[in-house]
Amino acid sequence: MKRIAMLLIVLLSMISIDMEIHGSANYQTYEDIEMVTGKLLEDFTDKEYISYYDKVDKRLFMGWRVHKVNEHVKATYVTETMFSYYNDGYTPIEYKYTLSRKETSKLGLSATGSIALSSSKGGDKLFKNNLDSSLKLSADYQVTTEDKETYEITLEVDPGTQVDLYTYGEGKVTNGVAARYVLFVRLERGGFEVFLVTTQYQRLEKKRI
Amino acid sequence: MKTWMFYVVSLVLITGMGIIIYFDKPEVPKQLLSIRREYALISEEDETIDISLYLNVFDHDIIDSAKHISAYLSNASSSKKIEVILKNIQKGQRESYLEMIWTEWVFIYELSLFGYDYEIEECYLNLTLESGDEYRILIGKLYISNLDEQTDHLDWHDLSAKKRVDSLFSRIDQIDIGYISLDVPIEKVSVGTGIECTFEIDEQSIKINIPDDHYLLNRVPIILSFEDGSVQLIQNFTYFIEHQLLKESGMLVTTYALH
Fold it and tell me: Where would you tag: which of A12, A31, A102, B187 has the fewest CB atoms within 10 A of its CB?
């Protein structure tokens, strides 16, 4: 029995490394996020947590028990100003703005309770203990930390004019609660949330100062 | 001793299985995807055409700028043809599509200056690589507008756009220009795609309606023609960026096998 258990542990640990999601979008700092239906993890009440925990409290031999409260729910968001530029000269300037950032910025993760996030070498967050695999998220969420995306914006800025670029957009939210068991013993329990940006709109504003 | 043997044999078997699974994967054919898009450009110095192509592999001559010999844009019959110079190839975002991971590569080409408006209805990017391989890739529609003297009758304050909600494709539906003052009435509006757009003006904003079409459109200039015959250009601006473009553009995607 002991041998079989050991073998199962080895097998499970090998199987559960097939999917890893990395998130670096600090979506909690967005000025505003509104979901079409449901709530963000930060708005779950204690009473709600208690009722959701009921769904994951049934003991499990090994692994994560997951209850999704919201799955791929559409959301809209507004971020802070992406850049500001002021031309204090006397002639118009052709201003070229280059934004270069990691591709993973389109994905944000958060967790509550004893579910932990760890940091990858690239500084991105990921769920500890392979919660990612148990969430069974689609491949859209599977991104690496190596790639970068670059946006270039070229515009003419008149003297005494400030230009601001704002971003807002649409995304999908998946959240809920999960608990991890090893040999029927619960080791972790808490809330999880994944925020995926699907469309990013850009709004350009200029004002004379 | 027996216990240790059990563990060692199990470990060897599991490792063996892992190796077999890893090496038994069917070889994925090297492919390239293009998405039909409308390119609205202005004939001016430093103007570039940025063409996004998607590859399911990381190692191919086509994404090594040093391996490119020449390139031109043309229509199907090559009766219309423009030479372009490769400036850079930039790695873009990654997306999953048809159970594969695709990486976007943005091919940035310098354009020659035109003294007139130019249009290629069905535009192909033709590439020749050092290896002798040639590719002919459908990219969409190309418009190059040539503008003479420009005015600034419209003092605009902000620019934003909405995506077409009822469309299957990622395409601008309406551009909203907030403005401070408008000195001369506007006669017509274009976004450099060869078609005149309808527009509505109220006290503080101009709403430009972009006709629907089976092409992506997220980056356009705005060309305002005034009743006094003058023209004002609001430069090319990217109104939105899609992170799941392939998935949303299925019907506009063309697949090519890479040599």
Answer: A31
Contacts of B99 in chain A (CB under 8 A): 139
pLDDT digits (tens, 9 = 90+) for B12-29: 888 888 787 777 666 778
C-alpha dihedral, B227 to B237 to B122 to B97, nearest 10°: -150
Structure-token pair, residue A204: 């350009």
Q: What does residue A54 show for φ and ψ, rounded to 5 degrees?
A: -55, -35
Tell which residue, B123, B114, B54, B124, has the closest CA to residue B89: B54
Is A14's CB within 8 Å of B14's CB? yes
Residue of B nearest to A208 (CA): B157
B95 touches chain A (CB under 8 A): yes
Amino acid at the residue B55: L
Residue A175 has pLDDT above 90, yes or no: yes
Which DSSP helix (H) or strand (E) runs through A203? strand A185-208
Q: What is the DSSP string of B192-250?
A: SSSSEEEEEE-SSEEEEEPPP-SSBB-EEEEEEEETTS-EEEEEEEE-EEESSHHHHTG
Q: Which two tokens stand for residue A21?
A: 């999601």
**Cα(B172)–Cα(B137) distance, integer angstroms:** 24
User: What was the ipTM of the complex prediction?
Assistant: 0.81
For residue B156, the one-letter residue type is W
What is the C-alpha to C-alpha distance for residues A125 and A104, in angstroms, rounded to an integer? 10
Instruction: Please say whether the beta carbons of B258 and B32 come within 8 A.
Output: yes
| Total Cβ atoms within 10 A of residue B14 | 14
CA-nearest of B42, B74, B44, B32 to B220 is B42
SS3 call for B246: helix
Which residue ranges form the domains of chain B, and what is each CATH number?
Answer: 31-147+243-257 (2.60.40), 154-238 (2.60.40)
